Input
Amino acid sequence: MALNNTPDLTKKPPRSARVRLGGYVILPRMLDKGRATIGGKNGEYNYACPLDERFLEFAGIDPQALKKELAAGKGDGEILDWVQKHAKNNHTEPEIAVWSEFAEQRVPGDAESRSFFNELHQKAAPKREDIRTWFDLLDVDDYVSFGGKA
Output
């Protein structure tokens, strides 16, 4: 199904994981990837990847049910309404804010994750010393992947 609001992730990255919708980080980025996947324009981006799973688990949302709503052509506001009605885990605004802040500041938590993080960091921006969080790494990787200079 072709959507009017399908981002082409072969030409530009999805929104930063830092962008919030309803207070949730990750959600707008995941919506971009879902819409692009439905439209066959996701490039190297994957819907319901481990990052997306963090949101999905926190909210208690089934990724396939969400994808079905995206396929119906719903905009961000309509999707947020749907999430709020169908989330198995009903969180308060302060809980969402705390979770989002924690997600935004998350760093690799074990040696294997640190090694993976460092490998990606070296590929994307080896001279940048300010890349500390997963969101920092995603932002710089998106930027350089589409021709930016780190």
Q: What stands out?
A: The longest helix spans residues 111-124. Residues 35 and 133 are 26 Å apart (CA to CA). The radius of gyration is 16 Å.
